[in-house]
Design brief:
Layout: H1 4-22, E1 29-33, E2 36-40, E3 50-53, H2 60-75, E4 82-86, H3 95-104, E5 108-118, E6 132-135, H4 139-152, H5 157-163, E7 174-181, E8 184-194, E9 197-205, H6 214-230, E10 235-239, H7 244-250, E11 253-262
Parallel strand pairs: 3-4, 9-10
Antiparallel strand pairs: 1-2, 2-3, 4-11, 5-10, 5-11, 6-7, 7-8, 8-9
InterPro entries: Acyl_CoA_acyltransferase (IPR016181), GNAT_dom (IPR000182)
GO molecular function: acyltransferase activity, transferring groups other than amino-acyl groups
Pfam families: Acetyltransf_1
Length: 266
């Protein structure tokens, strides 16, 4: 059973990381009002435009009130967005009842992530051959990680470049790696220092190069860079179902589930 402090941390890291990604982008909108936290990047990168609760829902009527308020606040942003909520912040921890309320309001399930944490990583299981890891230090490598994520998640390339490739995401608290095979980018990952924790995001591998250990190698590269640069050991991420087995093998443990919902049609 995950410790309450780990659950609280996973919720806080989701909001803090998304805020970090968006706060330097032109046209961003970040606010916390009426129990709702709004983080909009100002771009069409829907995965970076998230509205969530700023505290656990007290009961189902409270959830409904705040979900309705989320729609009002986010629609004013003029960009595609998702409503995110963890099982642990659902009223009474009842994810089923929460889904019923959101469904009645017109929300539709989009994607689910698992909050995960590790205090130390397990040793690498294998060393992939033929992979060249480069640090993200210039426009070319920023574009590479943006494009890999856009293709992986079915997002327009332009939306990825307007957000993930923006130089505001790559300051001195960012450590990224892109993996190349035959001179072509095939995988990428990034680690950000978020509230004293190494937060991992933007992990992606080209479809034809999956299951070769490339994503893990890119992750370990940027995690090691962040460790050397800061001395921070603890690391948090929010995993897709496809990525979760890789992260468990690296030593991460699951904390709580987050469900992202597409909003009701206007």
């Amino acid at each position: 059973m995950p410790a309450p402090v780990d659950i609280e941390e996973s919720n806080a890291q989701l909001l803090a990381a998304w805020t970090y990604f968006s706060k330097g982008l032109p046209g961003h909108r970040i606010e916390d009002t009426d129990g709702v936290s709004v983080v909009l990047s100002g771009t069409d990168m829907i995965l970076l435009n998230v509205v969530t609760l700023s505290s656990p829902a007290a009961d189902l009527p409270d959830l409904e009130r705040r979900a309705r308020r989320a729609v009002e606040l986010a629609r004013a942003g003029g960009v595609p967005w998702l409503f995110a909520l963890s099982d642990s912040w659902s009223p009474g921890g009842d994810a089923g009842a929460t889904a019923d309320v959101l469904g009645r309001l017109g929300f539709k399930p989009a994607v689910s992530l698992t909050g995960m944490v590790a205090d130390a990583l397990a040793p690498p299981r294998r060393a992939p051959s033929g992979l060249e890891l480069r640090r993200i230090t210039d426009a070319e490598t920023r574009a590479a990680i943006a494009d890999l994520n856009a293709v992986t998640y079915g997002i327009p390339i332009a939306a990825g470049r307007a957000s993930i490739a923006h130089e505001s995401l790559w300051g001195d608290r960012a450590f990224g790696r892109v993996g190349y095979v035959g001179g072509q980018p095939v995988c990428a990952a990034a680690t950000y220092i978020v509230e004293g924790i190494r937060y991992v995001g933007f992990v992606a591998t080209a479809a034809e190069h999956r299951r070769k250990g490339y994503a893990e190698a890119a992750m370990r590269g940027c995690l090691d860079d962040a460790l050397r640069g800061t001395g921070l050991q603890r690391t948090v991420l929010h995993a897709t179902d496809m990525g979760r087995p890789v992260y468990e093998g690296m030593g991460y443990r699951a904390v709580t589930r987050f469900h992202f919902h597409a909003p009701p049609q206007a």
